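Technical note accompanying the year-one report. For the benefit of new consortium partners, we illustrate the data format agreed upon in the data management plan: each record pairs a sequence with a structure-token string. No post-processing was applied to the example shown here.
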Amino acid sequence: NPFRPLETSNPEEFRRHVENGRQVYYQNCVFCHGDNLSGNGMFVHGLDPLPTNFADGATIANLRETFLFWRIAKGGAGLPEEGAPWATAMPAWGQFLNEEGIWEVILFLYDFTGERPRALEEEVDTE
């Protein structure tokens, strides 16, 4: 996430991006993911599969920000089986949101839930 380094280098600017992400979320995502990010928005009854419950720490803490960017931008319709196990009815938001807005909503998701993005794993030399 290009804005993640601001968390320590410029906290005020970072908070501005989180706030922008909050606005993007409540203008676009709340209808499916709900007010509290638990996947219980007003459109949930018409969706199969159900939206991701970001309030469940076991969900978002296991995801990397780059995966979330890809999933938000590309959505889920028509994904190959390699997209599993996270099948989704989410539309491709990359057609409606710019890259900055997608990165900002990702910051908001982690900020709201109090979780941290999954970090890169280092390769372990077993020899």
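Partners are asked to follow this layout when depositing records. The chain has a mean pLDDT of 88.
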